# Entry
Amino acid sequence: MGASIDPTMVDQMGPLRSFLVRMGLASTSDHSSVVAITLFVTLLCACIVIGHLLEENRWMSESITALIIGLCTGVIVLLFSQGKSSHIMLFSEELFFIYLLPPIIFNAGFQVKKKQFFRNFITIMLFGAVGTFISFSIVSAGAMLLFKKFDIGPFEIGDYLAIGTIFSATDSVCTLQILSQDETPLLYSLVFGEGVVNDATSIVLFNAVHNFDLTHIDGSTALQLFGNFVYLFLTSTALGIGAGLLSAYIIKALYFGRHSTDREVAIMILMSYLSYMLAELFYLSGILTVFFCGIVMSHYTWHNVTESSRITTKHAFATMSFIAETFIFLYVGMDALDIEKWKMAKRSPGTSVGLSGVLLGLILVGRAAFVFPLSFLSNCLKRTPNSRIGFRQQFVIWWAGLMRGAVSMALAYNQFTRSGLTKLPENAIMITSTISVVLFSTVVFGMITKPLIRLLLPQSSKPGQDNTSDPSSPKGLHIPLLGNGEAVDIDGCHVRRPSSLRMLLQAPSFTVHYYWRKFDDAYMRPMFGGRGFVPFVPSSPAGAGNGDAWAR
Amino acid sequence: MGASIDPTMVDQMGPLRSFLVRMGLASTSDHSSVVAITLFVTLLCACIVIGHLLEENRWMSESITALIIGLCTGVIVLLFSQGKSSHIMLFSEELFFIYLLPPIIFNAGFQVKKKQFFRNFITIMLFGAVGTFISFSIVSAGAMLLFKKFDIGPFEIGDYLAIGTIFSATDSVCTLQILSQDETPLLYSLVFGEGVVNDATSIVLFNAVHNFDLTHIDGSTALQLFGNFVYLFLTSTALGIGAGLLSAYIIKALYFGRHSTDREVAIMILMSYLSYMLAELFYLSGILTVFFCGIVMSHYTWHNVTESSRITTKHAFATMSFIAETFIFLYVGMDALDIEKWKMAKRSPGTSVGLSGVLLGLILVGRAAFVFPLSFLSNCLKRTPNSRIGFRQQFVIWWAGLMRGAVSMALAYNQFTRSGLTKLPENAIMITSTISVVLFSTVVFGMITKPLIRLLLPQSSKPGQDNTSDPSSPKGLHIPLLGNGEAVDIDGCHVRRPSSLRMLLQAPSFTVHYYWRKFDDAYMRPMFGGRGFVPFVPSSPAGAGNGDAWAR
# Structure
């Protein structure tokens, strides 16, 4: 595990360890990580069981349960170590970005309802790119204006801009936990899609903050920023699509399935992880890459593998993602009570609270400033009233994207600490404020979201209709038996073979989808496989009854 | 990843990195691990694809392919860095014992043919405990006698005994790769089972070497060693069985399946890993623990979960194990060309070769010295001629257990290096000799094993018959539909309800199995679930045709 072991913690474990060392061979450095891993795995088991027991509760979600269990463990460790240490592993960016985030985002891409996602593509891009930039500007400007009143040491302009980036990073992981793809597909695809695109924007802005001379911003800088974003977005997406297509081609060409389900699953896992790591290697947006890799894999690769590989990948990816999500919230909860940082920030107890309040306010305002205007803009672009975003939905989009999570924590650590220690008091206070914002927004905003959706959108709990081509669909497995139907089923109305150019003007996304299907059928599927193009021998003709094997 | 990054490697990557750093935000220490992980994941993909293409080859196995690819990569890195460094990550015991070994051994326990394993339990214990001790004594004594001729610096008696332990550690991972459970079930269960028990023996011997005063060994020391072994064996087994039963009980009591396949799979993964980590925490044999945890989970827990969880766990565990195995061989191959160790040992080029030859000879003799006598003893104990071990089988058992792998490497590093560096020349020479033995035994002995089995046991390629209760069985899923049959099908002859005590004398293992089944049905299954005790709604009555969903 990439997380470094807190040396003070190891000291606290002294009595137990010396007992253990007396018992047998003692390799000290190994053993402290054994202690930490054992504790974390135990807590993960506890989170799953307790989260399951609390599932019926309308206020709690799994993430909040994990966060609270993490906090309680922090308190217990704090008491055991007589107030010296509350955490067992220091928060590690490497652990978070290299091991925990990729499976979560990949699984989101793999299980996302592709039609829903691509139909709202323009709105998602608006929110993710323009919206993030608006939010970043407002938070940065607000921090610059309001922080001066707190007298918390010298902040440079770069720090303020970094604060803007940190608190504009929507937490995709929180979104996945709070919004349900089946109950509110539109909101899910908008808020989650925004979170994915947001990552590319954040990288561009973060780089800009570090590289550009920001004291005089003119047209060319803005153009350069925009060019950077387009470059990053296109290369990251292309890398993800390329990795997905390569995996589809390898599995189709070599036809692993004849021999081994395990090899197919291994290739899918490794190729998707490779796409993320390559993106990180070339300083692209790994989140965008692995998200698109997941989408391509669910469209092509998933249909080339054996039936048992399909079931295995669907559930194994979801399980990995679930464990990683739980781990992150547990970790953030445990890390929140890091006593050293709080001691550093202690000399001004009111300041940290005030600062957190200001930041929360800025987040609220910054998000409102783009969700409502951009939703209006998006509604103007759309001709069909069905796909417009109502005011209540806008409100939920605003609210559901307010949570800040592990991504904000990781960015804050990156900006305000070097090697995990917070030496300067102004940096310590920024870290503690970030932790407060993350805890408050996740617990309070998170708890309110579920009841809020039920209150504002009571009709939303109908199941999605257009999910035939996704691994997440109960029907996905057996559709190939029904032939490669061309019926385009969007919003409940069957659109059969649109025959005139008028279509394009009336409903551009339908037309794009139609031509994409033609291209897909003519060139992509013969090459990369996918639904209906691989010799598929149904295991049992009565297999349609197997639906409950797919119940999640 | 626990592996530490080799600093010299990072220096070699200079030009590429500085190019990357210029491109964007540069967090140096993170980035070198990104480079290493990307390379490893790429190589893993290459191993799977190339291993698949070479599958028909009678000489190659996946492990040898991975080893050779690792060696080639080592050479390429060596050339790129102008002879300064050949490996990207130092061999890390933590990575090996904490992350790679548990999934492999757990999967072996999960997929093992339980009846075959427990029928040969006495023989396995003889091989694993007595056999390892005999081999250890012979290798230690041989090293003590023969090493003096080489003039390689001062070795203490503890070092010689450690050499005995290191080269008596059968490599379970190699066994899994070379022997096929379906083709040679008896040999597989004997050699692999021996490898699992061998781990407990090795820990006892290793502790004894470090803690006991070995200059005068008398009856009480031997008794103490024996007591230690029994304690370690029983506690480790009990911990594994306890963890398995707890997982079965949790899943049965809470009945996760109603809600989420992912949670069930997560609980199974986490509980099995927890059992391993707890064993490591209390200095027990994690390998024994997680092996028995796998057996109990496949007997109880696996039958309590949903149908899709069963398929997912079966394949996901196999995939994790497959990736970990491939990673280990790749890693050993890359580490073999560690130029620093070879430089240290260079001043006497013939010594290292001679030493490796002596060690290989001792391994051959040490293994022969227990396989043939103990097989004879085991044959005397058995009354039915069917289950006796023929001479050809004994020969294959002797040969298939000769390979030394990552376990030997890890033990050698633990004994002869501190913090991964080999300062003393006599230690460096021991490390290079161990690497040579591992490479030679895996590649040469491993390549010969497959053809050897075909030559000596041509009738062995019939599929196993008695695999109805295992996850590895194509029939396992649908057996519950046929009711909880009591027919005990062993060796092809149906033994229906043995009714007299004469049975016990004639065929003790049959009788033990009969009473175990009665106990299992009366007390264990009602409590912990298992085959036939969980409300199971068959998804399709024609489901028996679904067999190919289980083809591995």
